[in-house]
Amino acid sequence: MTRPGGEDFSVSQGDTSNEVVLRGALTIRTVTQAKAAFDGFNPETLARINLSSVTRLDTAGAWAIVRLQNRFSEAQKPLELTGTTDKVASLLHTVAQTMPSPEKAPQSPFSFAQWLDGIGQKVFAGAMFLRALTGYLGIFLHRIGRAVRHPSEFRFTSLVHHCDEVGFKAVPIVALMAFLIGVVLAFQGSTQLRQFGAEVFVVDLIAISVLRELGILLTSIIVAGRTASAFTAAIGSMKMREEIDAMRTLGLDPAMILFVPRILALLVMLPILGLIANVAGLFGGGLMAWIDLGISPAMFMTRLVEGTSVDHVFVGLVKAPVFALIIGVVGCHAGMQVESNAESLGRMTSNAVVTAIFAVIVADAVFSIFFARIGI
Amino acid sequence: MTEREVIIRLRGIRNQFGSQVVHEDLDLDVYRGEILGVVGGSGTGKSVLLRTIAGLQKPAAGSVDVLGTDVLTADEDTRQALENRWGVMFQDGALFSSLTVRENVEVPMRAIEGLDPEIRSELADLKISMVGLQYLAGDKYPSELSGGMRKRAGLARALALDPDIVFLDEPTAGLDPIGASAFDQLIRGLSHSLGLTVFLVTHDLDTLHATCDRIAVLAERKVLVTGSMKDMLKVEHPWVHEYFHGPRARAAASEGSAEPGEKGN
Ligand SMILES: Nc1ncnc2c1ncn2[C@@H]1O[C@H](COP(=O)(O)OP(=O)(O)OP(=O)(O)O)[C@@H](O)[C@H]1O
Ligand SMILES: [Mg+2]
């Protein structure tokens, strides 16, 4: 019952000059060959095809024959098929009935205008994306206002849960990251500053860079990677299974239930995480300064308190709520863009992370310029 | 009438999940060219039976013979050759979501050596049109199709290599009555013109009436009875009796019996 390994197909001249005989298996395995042969047939000289020696015919073979017949009919020279069994005739009939008529969308060739159009559309899409994000921020603020007026609608349990998820559980990774950054700064700084005999300034170096920039920026980047993706995945999978639509029909507000606790949790927890990162960074730097440069902890503390203005801490931490809003809004927005297939969930999740990290860095740059201008 | 060729032969099948025995000592024959409808209550193991025959689930005991080959003991190459000779349409189509419908239908054809890509794409279009989808549906992604269209696309993919057997798991579930009866006719028509053997799992009594040559009832962990619709009406077993004499069955029967009756006269 196994299928013959090599299926053969051949075309030969029939009894009369206007007849050809097809032999062997005319199936999907031989159709490429058959079509090439059929393309060579001329409507002027051929009138009949004998199928009596065809051992096997499948839809692919039937397709090739029907295609040939159609070509001949267009040339006003109908092609006659002989030697067809009932089964073959019925198959040919089915295929002829369902032969698709290609209506391919015309593909215009590449042009300058098209290229320009492409760029324009991308810019427009970018602008629309920013608008959508602003819209989500607006929704969030509106729902916060609503929660203040109607505290019963606010889900406090959910807020606590998300604070735990985005804040408490991120403490180890954030602290470790900041500690290592402090170590690296102290180490690199000391090697450079030692050349000038200015080792003691390593304390200022660590303090300023950690407190002002790195502590909060790197914390935000880690949180963006962890949390924006988690928001997108959680909201997106609900969107995918139409749970969000179900919520709406049940009179529940997805923004209130899903967005508010998540973004609010980030708003609360990101400054705290930033503070933890600052402490861990200073600790790492101090430790390294002690080991590498012999700056004792007491000296480090004195130098830190005397030489570093509290402004730096303020400048660093004031960014935290903004970064939190960016991460939360981007994550929730991306989640709501998920369509009904699993692929878009994956795509939007990675989009959310990239967008959130990028936006955080852009915002940090804007802050830097701003603070430099007002001279803090 | 000549002795009919048995194309699927199940003997002594036993399937179990943990301590739950789904099939016990189950025998079933499917003949070439017929449309066999498999019915049974929810959870009686219809889908599991289909998966067993299609080699997706290994039974704990028993033998599965398809097209004269023992599926369970066959080596890789034989199995591969066999898999090209059956097509499975899963309950929700199970189309690859990253491919368009046309590319989905082309997937099985890619295994054919020396098949010209252009021909392959046109053959895919033919299959798409055969199952009653519009030409432009070929460019769409599965997520852009309705449930009924996905089922048709799933059928087109199952038919891609002109299989001898197709397995259909509840092909008409979730379709509107017009769509469902169009699907019934489609299956009948294709089975007739392509000489297909169809193993069809269904809950739809109209489908049973309209398409199936023979019905197998799954109950009490085995195939309880097989036979034509007429035979089913005579079975004494309470579940079978309830199934084929319930209010829905009577409604379906009064519609379905009109056509064969006319033909008979
Ligand atoms: N992978 C699995 N693991 C454990 N149990 C399973 C598994 N697949 C099926 N079952 C069990 O086998 C039984 C039969 O399932 P099956 O899906 O075949 O039912 P069915 O007859 O197709 O029902 P329906 O008509 O609802 O589709 C069920 O009780 C189910 O719980
Ligand atoms: Mg099932």
Automatic annotation (TrEMBL), chain A:
Domain of life: Bacteria
Main location: membrane
Membrane-protein topology: Multi-pass membrane protein
Record-linked Gene3D superfamilies: STAS domain (3.30.750.24)
Coiled-coil features, chain-numbered ranges: none
A GO cellular component entry from the record: ATP-binding cassette (ABC) transporter complex
Keywords, sorted A to Z: Cell inner membrane, Cell membrane, Membrane, Transmembrane, Transmembrane helix
Listed InterPro entries: ABC_MlaE_roteobac (IPR003453), MlaB-like_STAS (IPR058548), Permease_MalE (IPR030802), STAS_dom (IPR002645), STAS_dom_sf (IPR036513)
Residues that span the membrane, as ranges: 123-145, 166-187, 214-235, 256-276, 282-301, 313-336, 348-372
One Pfam family it belongs to: MlaE
UniProt GO molecular function: phospholipid transporter activity
UniProt cross-references to PANTHER family, sorted A to Z: ABC TRANSPORTER PERMEASE, ABC TRANSPORTER PERMEASE PROTEIN-RELATED
Family, similarity comment: Belongs to the MlaE permease family.
Role according to the record: Could be part of an ABC transporter complex.
Identification of the protein by name: ABC transporter permease
Organism: Marivita geojedonensis
Taxon lineage: Bacteria, Pseudomonadati, Pseudomonadota, Alphaproteobacteria, Rhodobacterales
TrEMBL record, chain B:
UniProt key word Transport: yes
Origin superkingdom: Bacteria
Classification via InterPro entries: AAA+_ATPase, ABC_transporter-like_ATP-bd, ABC_transporter-like_CS, P-loop_NTPase
Domain ABC transporter: residue ranges: 8-245
Gene3D superfamilies given in the database record: P-loop containing nucleotide triphosphate hydrolases
Keyword Metal-binding: no
GO molecular function term, any single one: ATP binding
Keywords tagged on the record: ATP-binding, Nucleotide-binding, Transport
Pfam families in the record: ABC_tran
Name this protein carries in UniProt: Iron ABC transporter ATP-binding protein
Native source species: Marivita geojedonensis
